[in-house]
Design brief:
Elements (H helix, E strand, L loop, with lengths): L4 H12 L5 E3 L2 H7 L7 E3 L27 E4 L8 H11 L3 E4 L3 H9 L3 H4 L12 H4 L3 E2 L4 H7 L5 E4 L2 H9 L4 E5 L5 H7 L3 E3 L9 H7 L3 H5 L1 H14 L11 H8 L17 H26 L2 H10 L3 H20 L2 H19 L1
Parallel strand pairs: 1-2, 3-4, 3-6, 4-5, 6-7, 7-8
């Protein structure tokens, strides 16, 4: 992170020229920005954790998980070592496991389908429709966090690699465990006392029953009120009104009157092959778009194209240019002092000869 220090500190300095302080989500970020003894940078956590104000209750519904437990899982991407194995192990053990998809590619996969099953493409993570979680309609994508949180009310445990997914679960009162795979996830997890595990541990340590057994939410719930006061104090110091000034009653009333889009499910295969056809069309368009982008990169900018054309001139063009240069040299040669002197001398001799 050291190469970023100068630009980041310049940005924060500009912010502090216009505000009493700046807020960060954890002590590590504060240590990178703040001077010793300064109060310019305040640790305030992640605002989504205060969706319900100072109220937060997270309780285990049972002393231990059995195979009938409702499990929620999601991942950040498919590049982390061991992630596919962790998902597969829990999928096989818990028939009620549901996978929460996120992002536009996942939405397209759910909505349009793809050709993975017909072409025999398989992955250990649900990034193709041939994955068993898609085949068994155990994948959901929530276009809005409100529906996501409401759906998690009935779950027994949620775990995944993104803090925001665990936040949705905790706001629903459902136990959650963060799987830390980078330097970002541990910071808010430590600040809020959210149970978390490092992804460098063996995959067998991420069985849902074991995560559930080890998780303790006492510090999370106990310290929530103090963290809420710190957050609202920061916002108040900046003179910003917020929906929790009346306890959030008016905001919640408005939320209850909103008809949110329901979660997206897997397109059913009972369509006479239409899902495959739409998936094929979607993939074809995407491949053509990628090829077009690659072609543009190869072509480069107009300026580069001009230079390239100059370097790749045709033989005919080179010959014509050489002829022009030769003609110019010949013309220049005719006007040299020696040639002018010879022409002048020749004219004088000719005149003398005529007179004789």
């Amino acid at each position: 992170m050291r190469p970023l220090d100068a630009s980041v500190k310049r940005f924060v300095s500009t912010v502090l020229d216009r505000a009493p302080s700046t807020g960060v989500r954890g002590e590590f970020t504060q240590s990178r920005l703040d001077r010793p003894g300064s109060k310019d940078v305040e640790v305030i956590g992640r605002p989504p954790m205060f969706r319900h104000g100072r109220s937060l209750s997270v309780e285990k519904k049972a002393s231990a998980l059995d195979t009938d437990a409702r499990i929620g899982m999601y991942t950040a991407n498919g590049t982390m070592s061991g992630l596919g194995q962790i998902l597969t192990d829990n999928y096989r053990r818990y028939p009620n496991l549901r996978y929460t998809a996120q992002g536009i590619p996942d939405l397209e996969r759910l909505y349009w389908g793809d050709t993975s099953r017909a072409s025999g493409r398989y992955k250990d993570l649900p990034v193709v429709r041939s994955h068993p979680l898609f085949e068994e309609n155990r994948v959901r994508l929530h276009p809005d966090p409100i529906t996501w949180t409401r759906a998690l009310n009935d779950y027994d445990l949620v775990f995944g690699t993104r803090v925001h997914g665990n936040t949705a679960s905790l706001l629903a009162g459902t136990p959650a465990v963060v799987m830390c795979h980078d330097s970002r996830a541990p910071e808010p997890s430590r600040y809020f006392d959210i149970p978390h595990r490092n992804m460098t541990e063996p995959s067998e340590e991420f069985g849902a029953a074991k995560l559930y057994e080890r998780a303790d939410y006492t510090a999370l719930v106990k310290g929530h009120g103090e963290r809420f006061e710190r957050m609202t104090g920061y916002v108040g110091k900046h003179g910003i009104p917020h929906v929790l000034q009346d306890g959030g009653a008016a905001f919640e009333e408005r939320i209850r009157g909103v008809d949110f889009t329901p979660p997206v499910e897997v397109w059913s295969d009972d369509d006479g092959g239409l899902g495959y056809r739409m998936g094929w069309l979607k993939e074809s368009v995407r491949n053509l778009t990628q090829e077009q982008q690659k072609s543009k990169k190869r072509q480069g900018s107009p300026e580069k194209n001009t230079q390239l054309n100059k370097r790749q001139e045709s033989p005919e063009r080179k010959l014509a240019q050489a002829g022009k240069r030769l003609a110019a040299l010949e013309k220049a040669g005719k006007t040299t002092p020696y040639r002018r002197m010879r022409r002048a001398g020749g004219r004088a001799l000719r005149r003398v000869g005529l007179r004789k």
